[in-house]
């Protein structure tokens, strides 16, 4: 009898074991709730629109006015690229207008070689730079196979322009994506800011009157 009395408190004594008793470790009523249907998570698309579209605000008397700015790049990867930026109250309207502006601002891009001119042009003909706001972007030709050493936005612009190999260096507040793209677009457009010798127009040189009538003047004849 003494042994049974001593063992009874040990079975249901203090601590966590006393609350469970013969029911186990708390499994039972809560099991049905966990075994039900899991909560469905809301589907969220993973796109790059967060980089190209951003909300901008303006403080007015009535409060803050929020609009959406869209940045669109277009190109054929064959030496033509365009940049369009538009702000509107609706996202769809901003994208549609930015596409139209980008199509109207298409410019030719001259491509060149880093070393020998073998094969198709793969890089830029010379070093070019562009500036917008505090951002300055410099484009440097690179050897074949180097690729585009640039930020994602600048790399996408150069890809659409048809440039395969190039180094880039930037300074200023490059976090401002709009100014960075504008500076790169200006640098790319400067590739046709000069004419190479193969594009010079052939002109027929005319002798000056002193050279043409040198013999007559030497004789000293008066008319």
From TrEMBL:
Biased composition annotated in UniProt, kind: Low complexity: 1-10
Signal peptide range: none
GO biological process, one term: translation
Claim: Disulfide bond is one of the keywords in the record: no
Segments crossing the lipid bilayer: none
Domain of life from the UniProt record: Eukaryota
Segments forming domain S5 DRBM: 46-109
Region span, Disordered: 1-45
GO terms for MF: RNA binding; structural constituent of ribosome
Gene3D superfamilies xref list: 3.30.160.20, 3.30.230.10
Pfam family, one: Ribosomal_S5
Regions of compositional bias (Basic residues) in chain numbering: 26-35
Alphabetized UniProt keyword annotations: Ribonucleoprotein, Ribosomal protein
Family according to the record: Belongs to the universal ribosomal protein uS5 family.
NCBIfam families: uS5_euk_arch
Family matches, as PANTHER family: 40S RIBOSOMAL PROTEIN S2, RIBOSOMAL S SUBUNIT
Protein name: Small ribosomal subunit protein uS5
């Amino acid at each position: 009898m003494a042994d049974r009395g001593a063992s009874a408190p040990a079975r249901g004594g203090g601590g966590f074991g006393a609350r469970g008793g013969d029911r186990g470790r708390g499994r039972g009523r809560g099991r049905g709730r966990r075994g039900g249907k899991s909560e469905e998570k809301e589907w969220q698309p993973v796109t790059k629109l967060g980089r190209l579209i951003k909300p901008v605000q303006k403080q007015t008397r009535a409060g803050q006015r929020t609009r959406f700015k869209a940045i669109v790049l277009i190109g054929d990867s064959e030496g033509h690229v365009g940049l369009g930026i538009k702000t509107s109250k609706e996202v769809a309207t901003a994208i549609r207008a930015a596409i139209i502006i980008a199509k109207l601002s298409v410019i030719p891009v001259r491509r060149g070689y880093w070393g020998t001119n073998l094969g198709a042009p793969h890089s830029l003909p010379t070093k070019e730079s562009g500036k917008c706001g505090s951002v300055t972007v410099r484009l440097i030709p690179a050897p074949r196979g180097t690729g585009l050493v640039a930020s994602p936005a600048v790399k996408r612009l150069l890809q659409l322009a048809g440039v395969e190999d190039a180094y880039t260096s930037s300074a200023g507040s490059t976090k401002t994506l709009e100014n960075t793209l504008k500076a790169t677009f200006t640098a790319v457009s400067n590739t046709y800011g000069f004419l190479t010798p193969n594009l010079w127009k052939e002109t027929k040189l005319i002798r000056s009157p002193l050279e043409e009538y040198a013999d007559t003047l030497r004789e000293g004849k008066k008319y």
